[in-house]
Structure formats: structure tokens, C-alpha cells
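**Folding the chain**
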Amino acid sequence: MTGQCKKLVISNSILWGAAIIAAAILSAPIILTTILLPVLAFISISNIIYAEKQNKI
């Protein structure tokens, strides 16, 4: 994993932590968390895969 990918993983981890804490503190509705968090997961994983592919070329 290159330096750029490591930065992306760290920033994604911080954003994930903030999203989960915000959902818990604000008592987000169950429907919102069951839709929003999986969408965030998909986008996060897609960004990491895309960044890794760009660095390998």
C-alpha cells in the first residue's frame, strides 16, 4: 500500500468514526442508519479500490 492509499485509509477511518458517533449522539432514525451507513461503506471501499488501481498503473 502506497503513502497515498494509507492517507486515504486514515481519512476514511476518521470520517467513519465521525459518522458513527454523530449517528449515536443525534439518535438518528434506524432507517437512516441502515441506508446511509451501508452507502458510505460502499463509497469508502470503492474509493480505496480506485486509488489502488490508479497507483498500480
User: Anything to note?
Assistant: The two ends are 14 Å apart (CA to CA). The longest helix spans residues 30-56.
